Amino acid sequence: MNHQEDYESGEDCDVQYYEDYENVDVHKLMLKDKPRMNFYHGILSDPTVVKDKIVVDVGSGSGILACWAALHGAAHVFSIENSSTALWQKSVFEENGVASKVTIINDSVENICARGCAWFADNYKFIAPLGGISLIVSEWMGFYLLHEGMLFSVLRARDFFRELNATLTSHPPRIEMVPSKASIVIAPMHMAAFKEAYLQEHWGSFHGVRLSTVGQVDFAKYDESAFFIEVLPEAAVLGTGTTFCEFDLATMCAESAHLVRHEINMDLSSSAAFQYLTRTAPGVAVDGFTIWFDVHFRNYRLSTSPFEEATHWKQFTMLLPADIREQEMVYVTKEEPSLNAVLHFGVLMPRTSELTRWTWTVGQ
Fold it and tell me: Domain Protein arginine N-methyltransferase spans what residues (predicted)?
């Protein structure tokens, strides 16, 4: 079984990608995401993380992360942003009194790297006396972590600035990555429980009038999809989540995220949803898989789990083909409450019309 995502054909994928981030509403959505903002603010307001360090913000968008770093003691911040949002940043940094501590680079990481370390050191001579780059921060995560493929630019920046540091001093500083670790988590899901919760929330009683018939029409968009991105109710998630893969941003190479394949065993016995649904039934049909991610830095954690406060990433759900769902071909019983799956995940880079692909095989 396979899921694949496309950009619009006939258009340059990089152009589409950066144009998306020129939409103010996109930034408004991210800035209103409380778990996201608390995670990064906690880190960048921590003096043990930023004080007296040169910080690089990769894909800096509105400039909020660069601002926090500058306001909380960074020696200097490089704000790298390839879209036209870099043009807003000058005013943002002036408004917050940090313009003298932030250098805006309106270009891509790839172009910066292509110019070389000598070019960068020559243009920004103040780096050497300050000891080099010590911290790279980026909010690179997309849906199910790797959508958009920005991680590859962050890793390229990491390698470039490590090389730059080595040219500046015989004792280069260790570059910390924010976030430093990331994981993709997966759990089986049950469509009926999602549907019940969805209809109740959106198509319940309106001053005594029920519109569940209209709700059925509305919900068909999910039934007929190969995947969807929504916040799932806990009642629809058949498991606490099994880690599919983990990344250490200090050591991983880009190739390790191009194609990931793992066989995983999902034990549903401890799932509250599974226990509830099997009170009066011998088992539960699995209709698909719900995927989310967690990221970490030191003791700071951001989770997009359906069991945590909702984020703008929501959760990504891949559905099994309709005929398999209709026939309940993937069915987990109380006697054997586990499910095995072999999952393959690929990110094709640079961005192409086939950006991401998930394939999986399910067995019991």
Answer: 181-328
* Average pLDDT, rounded, for the chain: 89
Close Cβ partners of 206 (under 8 Å, ≥ 6 residues apart): none
* 127 secondary structure, DSSP code: H
Residues 6+ apart with CB under 8 A from 241: 185, 186, 187, 292, 305, 307
Instruction: Report the amino acid identity of residue 128.
Output: A
Mean pLDDT of 6-17: 50
Sequential DSSP letters for 257-269: GTEEEEEEEEE-T
pTM of the complete model? 0.91
Lowest mean pLDDT across 238-242, 267-271, 311-315, 345-349: 345-349
Domains of the chain by range and CATH? 11-178 (3.40.50.150), 182-361 (2.70.160.11)
What residues have CB less than 8 Å from 242, skipping those under 6 apart? 185, 186, 187, 264, 265, 266, 267
The dihedral built from the CA positions of residue 274, 275, 281 and 283, taken in this order, carries a sign that is positive
Peptide bond into 282 cis (omega under 30): no
CA 274 to CA 283: how far, in whole Å? 8
Q: How far is the C-alpha of 137 from the C-alpha of 58, rounded, in Å? A: 6
Q: Would you say 146 and 152 are in contact if contact means Cβ atoms under 8 Å apart?
A: no
CB 158 within 8 A of CB 249: yes
Report whether 3 contacts 357 (CB < 8 A): yes
Question: Whose structure tokens read 């090389």?
Answer: 163
Q: Rounded to 5 degrees, what are φ and ψ at 49?
A: -95, -45
Q: Yes or no: say if 266 and 341 are a contact pair by the CB < 8 Å rule.
A: yes
Provide the 8-state DSSP code for 233: P
Q: How far apart are CA 188 and CA 4, in angstroms?
A: 19
Q: Are 237 and 306 in contact (CB under 8 A)?
A: yes
In percent, the amount of the chain with pLDDT more than 70 equals 89
* CB 11, CB 351: distance < 8 Å: no
Note the pLDDT tens digit of each residue in 82-118: 988 989 999 999 999 999 999 999 999 999 999 999 9
